[in-house]
Amino acid sequence: MDEQLVALYHRHVATAFDRNVRFADFVAEKAGKAKPKYDVASATLAFGPKLKLDAPLLGSYARSNGSWLWAWANRNLNLTLTNRALGTVVKVTATRLATPALAHGGFSVEPLFGPDLAARAADVIGVIFGRELDYFAYHVIEEEGHESTVLVRDKRLKATEKKPLERVFEVFPQVLGALPVADQKAALIHYASDLGLKSVSGSGALTIVQGKRELHATFDAHNRLTKLEGPDGAAELPKAKAKTKKKA
């Protein structure tokens, strides 16, 4: 497992999830419950006839063999010139991040991310590269046998959070319920920082400050969140998923 990549995922996971929530709200406002449709040839993600977004294809995760294939390495795809050029940007980013394995056309994900993150490779790679390449959000398209990740950048999605402390209190528990997050303390610190909030870390605790108002987070020995308290009470945290025993 590449510890640097896993740390980078935790650096970006909460903010990426937050932006995907905003993206979903934007789609619901503009297109209602219209189902997404992706066109590779034009790199367009459409939600019904009313909403079309530029969304280059990043790549796909094959569940059958646990591998990731970058879009520009797939000779069966007719990509736009801009989408194909994204491959060069990813290779440059992989070099900058000192993760040469990501510059290959395809690779097995579990040796890089570990088993928990590997199962959500389309999200993990969307989180990392969506944020590192400064796209607003990513979108995972589920298809038979694989999941594909596209990146979304649209000026209509930009907005300044007016109540960052409340946003952290509301969204961070959702992050933990939706995605695998091992180092929850690091994820919370980075999320607060991205929203312009100051964090004060102590032994097994974290205080997030906005003016005279505070959030208080408590963690166990493995940096898993056990309590999140705000000015109006404690947040409801997702229950830990029980591990199923392997059959003999």
Offer a quick outline of the entry.
By secondary structure, this protein is α+β, with helices and mostly antiparallel strands. The protein is 37% helix and 26% strand.
The neighbouring-strand order within the major sheet is: 6-5-4-8-7
Largest sheet: 5 strands, antiparallel
What proportion of the residues form beta strands (DSSP E)? 25-35%
Mean pLDDT across the residues is 93
Order of helix and strand elements from N to C terminus: HEEEEEHEHHEEHHEEEEE
How far is the first residue's CA from the last residue's CA? 27 Å
Q: Can you give the helix content as a percent range?
A: 25-40%
Total number of β-strand segments? 13
What gyration radius follows from the Cα positions, in whole Å? 19 Å
User: Which regions contain 5 or more consecutive residues with pLDDT less than 50?
Assistant: 242-248
What is the multimeric organization of the chains shown? single chain
C-alpha geometry = globular
Number of domains: 2
Number of helices: 6
Structural class: alpha+beta
Q: How does this model look, in words?
A:
By secondary structure, the protein is α+β, with helices and mostly antiparallel strands. It folds into 2 domains: 3-157, no CATH class; 164-234, no CATH class. The protein contains 6 helices and 13 strands. It has helices at residues 3-31, 81-96, 110-118, 121-132, 164-178, 184-194, and strands at residues 36-39, 44-47, 51-54, 57-62, 67-70, 106-108, 137-143, 146-152, 198-202, 205-210, 213-219, 225-230, 233-234. The strands form 3 sheets. Strands 6-5-4-8-7 form a 5-stranded antiparallel β-sheet. A 5-stranded antiparallel β-sheet has the order 9-10-11-12-13, with helices on one face. Strands 1-2-3 form a 3-stranded antiparallel β-sheet, with helices on one face. A hairpin with a 3-residue loop joins strand 2 and strand 3 (51-54). Helix 1 crosses helix 4, helix 1 (3-31) packs across helix 6 (184-194) and helix 5 packs antiparallel against helix 6 (184-194).
